Amino acid sequence: MAIAKVNPTRMELTRLKKKLVTAKRGHKLLKDKRDELMRRFLELVRENMALRESVEKGLEVANQNFVLAKAVMREEILNTALMAPLQSLSVEVEKRNVMSVEIPEFNYKTRTPGENDAYSYGFAFTSGDLDFAVKSLSDIFPDMLKLAEIEKSCQLMAAEIEKTRRRVNALEHVMIPETEESIKYITMKLDENERSTQVRLMKVKDMMIKQNIESKRNSVK
Amino acid sequence: MYKGVAVIGDRDSIYGFSSIGLSIFPVSDREDGLEKFRQLCRGDYAVIYITEALAAEIEEEIEKVSESMCPAVILIPGVFGNTGRGKAQVRKSVEKAVGSDILFGGEK
User: Fold this and answer.
1) Which letter does DSSP use for residue A2 in this model?
2) Domain range for residue B55?
3) What is the pTM of this model?
4) What is the distance between the alpha carbons of residues A191 and B57, in angstroms, rounded to a whole number?
5) Which residues in chain B are contacts of A70 at CB distance < 8 A?
6) Are B76 and A120 an interchain contact pair (Cβ–Cβ within 8 Å)?
7) How far apart, in whole angstroms, are the C-alpha atoms of residue B6 and residue A221?
8) Would you say residue B93 lies in a domain?
9) For a Cys-Cys bond, which of A44, A214, B51, B55 suits B9, CB 3.0-4.6 Å?
10) Structural domain range at position A99
């Protein structure tokens, strides 16, 4: 691996060592986060699939009922019947924090609590099939909302897991090895410098001793 | 914070939802759907149910809002039958998280 341009100084070495410690710590934490997120995600996504299946089935029935209702009623009457809905529904959105992923929680509130308020029409001119259709839809709705909540959570968590995994990999395979390499490079360079200084000193000492001996010999003569 | 719930898709698939208090937005073609969908995303809606048929046509637009918490865009089968797109969406998120679909790979 190519060594990044680093100055082989002690200061740089200390800095890199600190960086390595942080990187390792971050790596461990992110890894834990990824594992926990994954565990929760897998739980949630199984639930999601099961719920989706049941909701889709329910909606299919509701759709069939509506088609039936449409078949036996004139379109204008049907449109008039559903034109002014009695019920209005609002959803309260709450945030829940799961491993730093914000996932929504939906609680719905209907304007009128009565179960029969879904029928916004008089029964005289409409077919009974329409009642069935509306009933089947209003029965399935709590599940639909639950599905929305879970599915959105799954999507958000999937995105977060992907991000975390990238980070873990980047730290594990790029950041940490590179820093280690740089540290090794600096240590070796510093050792090398030290050795060369020592050799130089020894050489100088040798020369000085030689000079000393020489001068003494000369003075004896 | 109270928000509404919207349903968007072809008229036949969604008109019944108005009876239980959802806001319905019938659209006829792709352009119409795209514009309405954008409007809904900016609007005050917590959940947008969208028919699979319409979702297939404006996929990119749905992708754009998938990162934010609101609105949650949920696919529902329309009156013309189930295309399996909703389940594919779930599978896609598994793939995104795990790297490959390990849970529902065998199912079709």
Assistant:
1) P
2) 4-80
3) 0.80
4) 66
5) 12
6) no
7) 114
8) no
9) B51
10) 28-170
